[in-house]
Amino acid sequence: MRDVLYSGKVYALHAQVALFDAEDANSYPQWKTGTEDAVLGPKGVAVATASDTEVEVTVYKGKRASDEILCISGEIQVGDQGLVVGNIVSGDFAQLAWPPGQTSVDVYTNGRGQEVTRVVFVVESLE
């Protein structure tokens, strides 16, 4: 059984939503060209979405089989304050309790780039 850590709609200002370390002010991953489907940094992941609209976002704990598209997969380092999910610029985000340490992240979407209206983050502690 999967645990849902977050489920809701996020206003995706500048066509992106993210999941990143709440403790480090520099944890938001940086886009290289702005045309990527997603970017993964050492402490977070950001996903391109439809622009300036609400996007459905879910964060699951544990492994998940999905019919959606695997957009990006990797690992991030999480500090003592957990995770942030959402869009910081629009102010539409939530802080999630999560243990510190290395965390695997799989990101699924219902499309690519500007057509994305649903993002699923699947996290699992590697500690």
CATH superfamily: Competence, DNA-entry nuclease inhibitor, ComJ
- Distance between the first and last residues' Cα: 20 Å
The geometry reads as globular
CATH class value: Mainly Beta
Roughly what is the average pLDDT, rounded to an integer?
A: 94
Uncertain regions spanning at least 5 consecutive residues: none
Give the H and E element order: EEEEEEEEEE
Q: Which fold name corresponds to the CATH topology?
A: Substrate Binding Domain Of DNAk, Chain A, domain 1
| Tally of strands | 10
Please state the CA-atom Rg, rounded to the nearest Å: 13 Å
Number of helices: 0
Order the strands across the largest sheet as they lie in space.
1-5-10-9-6
* CATH architecture tag: Sandwich
In brief, what are we looking at here?
By secondary structure, the chain is mainly β. It has strands at 3-11, 16-21, 38-40, 44-48, 54-61, 69-78, 83-87, 92-96, 101-109, 118-125. The chain has a single domain, classed as Sandwich (Substrate Binding Domain Of DNAk, Chain A, domain 1).
